Every structure is written in structure tokens, then in C-alpha cells.
Amino acid sequence: MGGTRFTYLDYAASAPMRAAALEAERAYEASEIAGANPNSLHTLGRRAARALDGARTDIARCLGGGFRPADIVFTSGGTESNNIALHGMAEALRLRERGRRRILVLSIEHDSEVDVVPSLRERGFEVGFVPVGRDGKARLDWLGEHLDDSCALVSLMSANNETGVVQPLGQAARMAHGVGALVHTDAAQAFGRIPLDLADVDAVSLAAHKIGGPVGIGALALRGRCPFRPQAFGGGQEQGRRPGTQDVRAALAFAAAARYCTEHLEEFRALVSGRARALHQRLAEADCGIEPTTDGAMGDDRLPGIVSVMTRRIDSETLVLKLDQAGFEVSAASACSSTSLDASHVLLAMGIPRDVALGSLRVSFDERVSEDDLVRFADALVGVVRSAR
């Protein structure tokens, strides 16, 4: 094997597990409840159930917004959470109020929402996409014009997974509630990184591996008052909202990662934002045609640790492969769609020309990536772009 030193800069796809999460897993494996089914009536089953409920309590507390432990529904990850939220909430409200057949989804949502749209339409829903401006933010003027009492659900992500742009979620949620619609947000990228305005949000999708927890577990925070029609059946777990034996070990590790990120949120936010600004500045000073995909490199309206850039001189696939050869692991766009050769639907929705969008790159990291790592990366990226013919 070669001696290439790899620097991982794809945290928005999946972050390395944190020490706190790994320790939670080790503690579980060494405990008497390891392997016990939390739905069993015997002593170890009841103790496992208490541990699981403790994880719910921690995640609800970290999430804030008035969510209770009983509102936390464990799932297999953000994709499942988004799927069951869109179908389950919209179908339940339509059953209760027959006239509500419209769903509004932000045009730059993750594929786990965009790709659900055909299924929703097959089930009789009219689905519209809320457009964004060149700044990557939802156009609230359009939303206001299209909200009425036929709307069942509005889904607006907390922050975009490709550009890092934070959305006006609180304002949009209040507008949607004004016409009686339910509100869902995908907060997989934002949870644990920025404060969230969730007071008027009915459901929130989360993914543990985005914050340094294990892959394979997520949650849908679903308020008890929120109408919801289960999308799977078979065991009655999670109060009948999502059946299947729960993974207590993963839930405890998820909760540990959530606690750690929440406790250090402001500290890490300042540190990582500063490093992202320095990276933007170094790329700008190179003056080689590398531009940010949005105006304003960093600030309160950006997630710390997501740097999105583009160039006309070289395509994304070539960029990613050449940087990989140099030892830097980055993505062209969302890792869930990075094998596609088409331009990012997010950048196209922002009005970026296709030929420019085809040269986009997402760099993502947290406080575990050093300034020196980012300086070396910037120099490598500049070298690749300058060598392009």
C-alpha cells in the first residue's frame, strides 16, 4: 500500500465518530443490558428501555424548541426520517381535513425529499417547489403567495447540505401555521452546529452520523399533537410510529454525540467559522477563478464548516479525483448523489449556469480539522485548477 496521507474533508457526508460516542458504545457493550431487547418485560429488558428513554431525553434536550423525550422517534437515519415525515404527516392531515392535498417542498432539499415527490403525487398530492434566490435562501414572497387552506405540509430544510446556507425556517413556519399547514424541517446538517429556531416546527429529521455519532441511526422529532400516519407496521415500537426493535447501543452513542456538540456549540462554531473564512480568503487571494457559490463567504446565515466553491476551468469529477490523488477527500455535492454526472440541482435552482455548476466542490469539516490541513488543501486545490487547460 502507498504512503499517501489522507485528509478527510467530507464531514457533511459523514463525520468521523467522536470519542464520546465511541465511549458510549464501549460502556454499553460492557454493561449487563448489552443485547437486551428494550421491549421485553424482564429486568434487563426494562433496564434497556430506561437507557433508551435516557437517550431520548438527552436528544430532546439538545434539540430544544419545546420537544419532549416522547417526541423522539428513532429511525435508521435522515433519509428514513424525511420519507416517513413527508408521507406520514401529509396523509394524516388529509384524512382529517379532506381539502388539504397540497405539499410545498423547498427546491434545494436533499434527494431523500426531492425523490419522494413522485410517490406523493401518485398518492394524490399536488406538490410544489418553493424557489430560492441567488443567495440560496427560500423566497418567502413566493411562499406567501402560494399558502392557503389547501396546503397540508411545508417542508423547509434548516440549512442546505451543499452550500451551508441557513434557511429562514422560523418565519416560514409561522407563515405555514397561519393557514393551518404542518411544518417539517430536515435539520441533519444544522443540528449540533448552530442554534435552531424550532418553536413553530412540528417535526424535525436528524441523523447521528452528521455529528459524529454512528451510521445507521437517526430520529424524527415529532410533536405529540402532530397528526401522523405510520408508514410501516409490525411491532408497535416508538409508540406505534416506527416499528422494529431499537438499537440501544446506537441510540446511546447518538445521544453522547449530541450532548458533546451541544455543550461545545458556540466554541466550535466560532472556531470552525474562522477557519472557513480563512480558507475562503486564501482561495480568493490565489486569483485563479475559484469562486464561492453564494455571496458572502461566512456569517450567521451559513453553517460553520461547509465551504462551497466553483470554477469554470475544470469539472467536479476531475477536481475530486485529482484532489483524492493528492490526499484530500472532498465531494462534488451531496454524497448521496455524487456519482451523478449532472450538475447539482441545488446550484441550478440558485440560478447558477450549468457549465459553472458542473465545476462545483464542497469542502466540509469540524473543529478536528486543523488550520494547517486547510492551508495544505487550499494550495492543492489552487494547483489543480491552475494546471487545468
UniProtKB/TrEMBL annotation:
Its cofactor is pyridoxal 5'-phosphate. GO terms for molecular function: cysteine desulfurase activity; iron-sulfur cluster binding; metal ion binding; transaminase activity. Keywords: Aminotransferase, Iron, Iron-sulfur, Metal-binding, Pyridoxal phosphate, Transferase. SUPFAM superfamilies: PLP-dependent transferases (SSF53383). Pfam families: Aminotran_5 (PF00266). It catalyses: (sulfur carrier)-H + L-cysteine = (sulfur carrier)-SH + L-alanine. Residues 7-376 form the Aminotransferase class V domain. Its EC number is 2.8.1.7. Belongs to the class-V pyridoxal-phosphate-dependent aminotransferase family. NifS/IscS subfamily. This is cysteine desulfurase. It comes from Olsenella profusa F0195.
